[in-house]
Design goal:
145 residues; mainly alpha; 6 helices; 0% strand; globular
Length: 145
């Protein structure tokens, strides 16, 4: 199976878990921390675990380099391309850290293109520490010769 298909499977499972979660919430859940807080549901950890496992598989040296590069693009872009509930949107940013071991597999041109897009999407004053690390890694790949 291709990396993009596997990632779509992971995302679809997360979206399904979120639908089940939303369907089970009662009015007022999570308000002032009372009741069931949707942001604390185990489905978020499960999504993170699945994304980590996927990235680990495609970081292996014997995996297809182009598929690994595609997975990096998908992981870094998904929070801008998907609309999830507010309590789940942060997970799309959080899984970006799993792309770190895949970044060295990018070509200089791929890294340059992705870095340029990423810098425009995330202004320096809004970047989280992992996003700064991702940009540094992209710059390192871009500058290798």
């Amino acid at each position: 199976m291709k990396a993009s298909e596997e990632f779509q499977t992971v995302l679809s499972a997360y979206q399904e878990d979120l639908s089940v979660l939303e369907g089970s919430l009662r009015p007022g859940d999570g308000v002032l921390g009372f009741g069931r807080v949707p942001g604390n549901d185990p489905c978020h950890d499960l999504f993170d675990k699945r994304a980590a496992e996927l990235a680990e598989r495609w970081a292996e040296p014997d995996s297809d380099r182009e598929e690994a590069a595609q997975l990096v693009r998908l992981m870094l872009r998904c929070d801008r391309e998907l609309s999830l509930p507010v309590y789940a949107q942060g997970m799309l940013v959080a899984i970006q850290r799993h792309a770190m071991p895949l970044i060295p597999r990018l070509t200089e041109g791929e890294a340059r293109e992705l870095r340029s897009w990423y810098e425009k999407q995330y202004p320096f004053y809004r970047r989280m520490p992992i996003q700064k690390d991702l940009l540094r890694a992209l710059k390192r790949v871009e500058s290798r010769s």
